[in-house]
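// run 5 | inverse folding | seed 20
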């Protein structure tokens, strides 16, 4: 899995799930896969439906983004992903909260500038009125290994 093919999401590596028997973990994993598909198709519809109204994201550059800003970034093309390779996934369930951690290799254009490399992500999902919603996202770029 090299993650170089445009419009492709790949998953691999060790995947673990801990918690309440697997049902919630499987729901969050399935929703995350749909999120990655929508991200690569530049389709903001998933974000409109699954980001909580009080959603906040902290990007690699430390900037804070709200739900409205996130959706606008996808609609306008400010954020455009070409490929995402997902590795080292862990899903932990704490009651009605799911914490999804992963290491991703991405290729994207952000604010008109190419971006690529490894990024560690945390998404916090909360079950609200019977539906999973993303309430928080944090991305941290992983420094390249020294040669």
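// decoded
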């Amino acid at each position: 899995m090299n993650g170089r093919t445009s419009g492709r999401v790949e998953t691999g590596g060790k995947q673990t799930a801990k918690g309440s028997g697997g049902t919630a973990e499987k729901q969050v994993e399935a929703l995350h896969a749909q999120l990655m598909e929508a991200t690569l198709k530049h389709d903001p519809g998933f974000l409109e439906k699954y980001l909580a109204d009080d959603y906040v994201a902290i990007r690699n550059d430390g900037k804070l983004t709200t739900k409205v800003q996130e959706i606008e970034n996808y609609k306008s093309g400010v954020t455009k992903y070409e490929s995402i390779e997902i590795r080292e996934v862990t899903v932990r369930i704490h009651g009605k909260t799911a914490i999804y951690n992963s290491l991703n290799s991405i290729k994207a254009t952000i604010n008109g500038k190419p971006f690529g490399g490894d990024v560690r992500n945390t998404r916090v999902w909360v079950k609200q009125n019977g539906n999973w919603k993303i309430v928080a996202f944090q991305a941290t770029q992983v420094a390249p290994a020294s040669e």
